[in-house]
Amino acid sequence: MVSDIIYVGSKNPVKINAALNTLSDTLEHDFEAQGLKVASGVADQPMTEDETRLGAINRVKAMLEHHQGGLTDAWYVAIEGGVDVLEDGPATFAYVAIYHEGHWSVSRSASLPLPVSVYQALQRGEELGTVMDRLFDTENVKQKEGAIGLLTLNHATRQSVYEVALTLAMAKFHFPDLYTD
């Protein structure tokens, strides 16, 4: 039985809509999505892949704790955006974590190369959304198209990248017999 509720570990509408669109589409079911403000347990701007992955997992765990181990049939989704210096330079990406009835799936999005000047601002303690708002004269871009939209001329957006990452993570739920936890 597919449940009717998706809990998302954020109040950010981009993350809520990405989870709602992806699960509704991949499971061919109508859902309601509810954002919950939960702690990631990592920095506001994660600066490594490991920290970003941990933030997504921690958000799901915080929601499960909030619901005393998780509500039957509910889906729990968290998306954590982060940055790191990869082989070809600084980049931003996201980790997604999905939990449903005792099963987990964690995956990563594609990465977007970042200008060195942007990465240096992040190293000084700024958040990516704030840096991009200043650079592109936008307001609250992290709850809109994000750095991804700005740097790709909206050929991809923060939400579209999250949706692809979540779609990939759903493979474990589509074919549970092929995956072991």
Would you mind describing this structure in some detail?
With 181 residues, this protein is an alpha/beta fold. Helix content is 40%, strand content 22%. The protein has seven helices and six strands. It has helices at 13-27, 49-66, 116-123, 128-136, 146-151, 158-169, 171-174; strands at 5-8, 32-35, 75-86, 89-100, 103-108, 112-113. Strands 1, 2, 3, 4, 5 and 6 form a six-stranded mixed β-sheet that branches. Helix 1 links the parallel strand 1 and strand 2. Helix 1 crosses helix 6. The mean pLDDT is 95.
SSE diagram, text form:
Elements: E1 5-8, H1 13-27, E2 32-35, H2 49-66, E3 75-86, E4 89-100, E5 103-108, E6 112-113, H3 116-123, H4 128-136, H5 146-151, H6 158-169, H7 171-174
Parallel strand pairs: 1-2, 1-3
Antiparallel strand pairs: 3-4, 4-5, 4-6
Helix pairs in contact: 1-6
List keywords for this structure.
single chain; alpha/beta; 40% helix; 22% strand; globular; 6-stranded mixed beta sheet; 181 residues; 6 strands; Maf protein; 7 helices
In short:
The chain has 181 residues and is of the alpha/beta class. It has seven helices and six strands. The protein has helices spanning 13-27, 49-66, 116-123, 128-136, 146-151, 158-169, 171-174, and strands at residues 5-8, 32-35, 75-86, 89-100, 103-108, 112-113.
